Amino acid sequence: MDILKQDLSFLWPTVRREASQAIGHPVIGLVHSLWIAYSLKKANLGPNGPFRGLLAHLLVSLGGSTLACLITQRTPPILLSNFYIPIYTLGYVLINTPLVFSILSIFSFITEPVLMTVDAFTRAWTLSALVDSFISASPVHKEAQLGQILIGTIGITGGGVLYSYFSNNMAKMGSYPGWNFTVGASVATLYVICKDSYLGSIASDYWKHTPVRPHVLGLTKAIGMPKLLKDDDVRLLCALLLAGGFMLGWLFSGSNQSIGSKKNVVMIKPKITDVKINGKSVPANPGTTVGTPGKATRTK
């Protein structure tokens, strides 16, 4: 109980500062790449062959932000930097060596939450960059709140959704992408609300009348979170919400099914009725073998 009485107001400013400095560093990109490659390999969702596997890895890792840039007629970052392709290729190669994957799997109770958190922070900063660039493009874009939400959602979830829809593991077109997509779309919506004055005023009026508001304000004050959120604060808030949402799906794995996971692929067994042996109809049992001599034919 003594720890609850300590001054924790340094937490929020410290995490905000360190996260702002770390995002964009090659090491963070490599860790994010490791997480994507590890997740695909653990779920056995990667295609056969190293080249096809690398393409799938790059699609999931960088496809969402690339697609969002192409939609908004901007050059994707992967074409403007010498950093992305080599770093994400290295992550794929490392995970496909037995040693690295085995170590991450053995200590998964530690490694997976850590890698998941890095993934959440990377997505939050990507979301911010895409939406902010879209808003600053023209005054029309600033008033297109739905477009901002769509661009943000595509940017942080599009790669995984595209891979799931077009991979051999796809259950069926049109299936809901899954829990992580819900988390990503919800956080993208929150980011747009925080950035837009009109939506922000509506949300603020609603927030004033929620019963949990005093408790939340007490917690945020204790950790040093300011009442008036700046851009870095909004990014950090979105990163923490993404991390929390992903971990909920990780803890309750039944809610974390997405298209392409083997749990969603339904295997339909053929219906076996009966067989005819020497002209007599005998019930068929798929678990046994009929040993009676004679010609056997299956009835429809």
What descriptors fit this protein?
300 residues, mainly alpha, 3-stranded antiparallel β-sheet, disordered C terminus
Overall mean confidence score, pLDDT: 83
DSSP, total strands:
3
Distance between the termini: 72 Å
Structural class: mainly alpha
Numbering strands along the chain, what is their spatial order in the largest sheet?
2-1-3
Low-confidence stretches: 254-277, 282-300
Summarize the structure.
The chain has twelve helices and three strands. By secondary structure, it is mainly α. Helix 2 packs across helix 4, helix 5 packs across helix 6 and helix 9 (179-195) crosses helix 10.
Describe the protein:
This protein has 300 residues and is mainly alpha-helical. Helices cover 62% and strands 4% of the residues. The protein has helices spanning 11-22, 26-42, 50-71, 84-95, 98-106, 108-137, 139-142, 145-166, 179-195, 197-207, 213-222, 231-251; strands spanning 274-277, 280-283, 296-298. A three-stranded antiparallel sheet has the order 2-1-3, with no helix packed on it. Strand 1 and strand 2 form a beta hairpin. The longest helix is centred in the middle third of the chain and has 30 residues, at 108-137.
Give the SSE layout.
Elements: H1 11-22, H2 26-42, H3 50-71, H4 84-95, H5 98-106, H6 108-137, H7 139-142, H8 145-166, H9 179-195, H10 197-207, H11 213-222, H12 231-251, E1 274-277, E2 280-283, E3 296-298
Antiparallel strand pairs: 1-2, 1-3
